[in-house]
Each structure stands twice: as C-alpha cells, then as structure tokens.
Design a protein that fits this description.
Length: 416
C-alpha cells in the first residue's frame, strides 16, 4: 500500500527532485522554500544510478524513467537522508507513451526495497494523480513560471557565450551570480520586473570576455528529459562546446506552450474542452507575452541572437507535419527542426530514448520529409539507452560534426 504526501508533511519532510535542467532547477529549492516546503534537487551523476535503474525498472521501459528512478533509489541508499522524513517528487507529462507509467514504476521500486512508506508526489496536468499534496497557490505558480522563464533566458544566453569564453568558467560564474541575486527578488516580489531583469542579465553576460571566432551552431531537439538532462544525454551541450561547436536549445517554456496549444488543437479538431478552451488561449497569450519581453530585450541590445517567437515555431512545422500529431514531442519536435533550419542552424541532433515510439515517429520518421524540403539539413538521431555505449553515441555525433564542417567549408568556398 503506497503512502500519499499530505500537506501536513511539508514541515518535516524533505522532498527529493530528480535533476533535469541545471540552471532552471537552481530556482526550485528557494521558490518552494518560500512556500514552506523543504526541497532538494539531486545532482548526482554516476554509473550506480544506471545500475539501480536497471535493478528496479525493466530495460524495455523508457530510459528517462530508468534514470530518474535509479537516481532516487541511489540517493535513498546513500545514507544521507532520514527515510522516515523524505518524499519523492516526479513530473509526468502523460499521453500515449511509457512515461505515463513513471509513478507506478517508482512505487513498485520503493516496494521492492521495503520503502513503500515513503510518499511520492506526482506533478502533472493530465489527471494521472489528482491529489499531489502540494498546494499550488497563485504566488507559487507565478514564481515557478518566472523561474522557468529566467532559466530559459540564462540557458539561451549561456550557449551563445560559453563556447567563446577566453577564461574557462567565467560564464558559469556570472550565471551563478545572477541566479543568486535573482533568488532574493523572489522573496521581495521584484522578480516580476522582468524587463529590467532581462536587461541586467544581458548586460552582465555580454561582459564575459570572448573570442571573435565563428563557430558552427548545432541544434538539440528531442524527448524533453533527453534534450535537457546532462545525466540523460551524456552532457551533450558540454561535449559540443569541447568539440568547437555552439549548442542551440529552445526553452522549456516552449514545451509548456506546446502542451497548451494541444488543448486548443483538441478543441478545434474534436470539440474537446468546450467549456474551458478559452483558458488555454488565455494561458498561451500570457506566456507568449512574457517570452516576448526577453526576445525584445535581446533584439534591442543587439549582441545576441534572439530566440524564435513560438507562433513562428507553430507555423513552421505545418508544411511538414499535421498539428494533430500530439504523442510524445509530437509536432513540436519537427517544428523545432524546421525553425532551426530557417534560422540558419542546419545541423541538428535528435535525442531520443531507444524504443520511444512517439519520438521515433516524429524524429527519425520525419527526417526524410524534412530533408526533402530542406536538403541542406544535417540531422543525427541519437538513441540513449542503458545498453548504448557513450563511445558509439559520440561516434555518431562526430560523423554529424564532420559533415557540418564539410558543409560549412563548401558554403564559404561558394561565397568567395
């Protein structure tokens, strides 16, 4: 019998959260603490995590599920935590994929270890678990949304600076300083002055001393965990930078907008959410206006390339894939690839868990069609799995890099 997390537990239970977005998750702990919760993001990264995952999750299951559950079991076995006063939090997007089983798999793993008394919290918007025990008040939701937006902005700027920094570590140091200062604004309410905050971010980050060399940009798309999690994708962003490339990743709020847009599509296609569909449109408009503040700040400064407007991302994929394709990353993944190509990023890595049916259809399955429309695109679909060796993955990426360099050289010779 599993244990539910209840609101009275927040005073004496530490909530453990698996890692995914290194910058964004720096905001999670303080934001939840301001609302009375004790939270810790697990930042462990070792082979034992994969071994614990394999010991508790069948290897035919989703690789992100295996890693997330392995990371939690590894933490619980570390001796660092009081198992009578700890809870586990897990996010679930739901939908037609194996990720819908995360919660039951985690509870099964806890039962296997005799820890079924440890409560599990499911953060989802798909009705998979209706009683999470966390009281999502408006102040908490606002802080989480702004934390995600600021995380997106810092990640976007970081990837345009770190590959060029003259003194290694400068970019990370400046970002840590900005995050520390931002956390204080979440306490005072100043965090909502986003225009001012974005200008400060841009001004501080552009002062990092960097070289003037031009590096080839490589887009990263894929299943949400594999796309962002260094534990999942073998530190892909760092690897690309080490090899002399500039990684390009869209923000996680684009995935939130994708989920909201799907609610609108459900109404347009099937007349679902008849009474609430206007709320989807309202949420979409609000988030897109919030994103526009950052985009406008980047354009006005002129130092960095601004991110795409999400309305353009929606439009870009329609010539290649129908918006009714909503399983996994659905039309979003294909639309992101087309948006990357249209913005001059011709080299793309698709990160996907091995055997992920939705992502294989919208990633590998759409590659031929994308190439027919954009012949210059250089796409490398990379499978991640406990049985896939890092060397094999890197060799596939190296082949993509070699093609990218040849294509860039041919382009320069043509322009001379």
């Amino acid at each position: 019998m599993h244990t539910n997390y209840t609101s009275d537990m927040k005073k004496d239970h530490l909530v453990l959260v698996p890692s995914m977005l290194p910058i964004h998750f720096k905001f999670l702990k303080p934001v939840f603490e301001m609302n009375g919760y004790h939270l810790e993001v697990l930042e462990t990264d070792n082979d034992n995590i994969r071994q614990e995952g394999l010991a508790h999750v069948h290897n035919d299951m989703c690789y992100p599920a295996l890693l997330v559950i392995g990371q939690m079991i590894d933490a619980l076995k570390s001796g660092k935590y009081d198992l009578n006063h700890v809870a586990l939090a897990i996010t679930q997007t739901g939908g037609g994929c194996r990720a819908s089983n995360y919660l039951s798999l985690l509870r099964k793993a806890l039962e296997q270890e005799g820890w079924d008394y440890i409560p599990v919290i499911s953060a989802n918007m798909s009705g998979l678990e209706k009683d999470s025990g966390i009281d999502f008040t408006l102040p908490l939701i606002l802080r989480v949304v702004y934390g995600a937006l600021y995380g997106d902005a810092l990640m976007w700027l970081k990837n345009q600076v770190q590959p060029y920094e003259v003194h290694p570590g400068d970019t990370e140091r400046v970002i840590d300083e900005i995050v520390d200062e931002l956390i204080g604004t979440f306490e005072t309410g100043e965090y909502r002055k986003s225009k001012r905050i974005y200008n400060i971010m841009i001004d501080r980050i552009k002062k990092v001393e960097r070289t003037q060399e031009k590096k080839i940009r490589v887009g990263i798309v894929g299943e949400i965990y594999m796309k962002y999690s260094p534990l999942g994708n073998q530190h892909l962003e760092d690897y690309l930078m080490q090899e002399g490339f500039e990684p390009v990743l869209s923000g996680v709020m684009d995935f939130a907008l994708y989920s909201i847009e799907n609610g609108i599509i459900d109404y347009n296609y099937y007349h679902m959410h008849a009474k609430t569909h206007y709320l989807y449109q309202l949420a979409k408009d609000i988030i897109m206006r919030m994103q526009k503040t950052f985009r406008d700040a980047v354009k006005a400064d002129g130092t960095f390339t601004p991110p795409d407007d999400f309305s353009e991302v929606i439009a870009n994929g329609k010539s290649v894939i129908d918006p009714g394709v909503k399983m996994g990353e659905g039309w979003l993944l294909t639309s992101e690839v087309v948006s990357l190509v249209k913005s001059g990023v011709d080299n793309v890595i698709m990160c996907q868990p091995f055997g992920c049916l939705p992502n294989h259809i919208v990633a590998k399955g759409m590659t031929k069609k994308i190439k027919e429309e954009y012949p210059q695109v250089n796409i490398a679909p990379i499978d991640y799995d406990p049985s896939a060796s890092k060397v094999n993955q890197e060799n596939r990426i190296r082949l993509m890099m070699a093609n990218a360099r040849l294509n860039e050289q041919a382009k320069q010779e043509k322009n001379q």
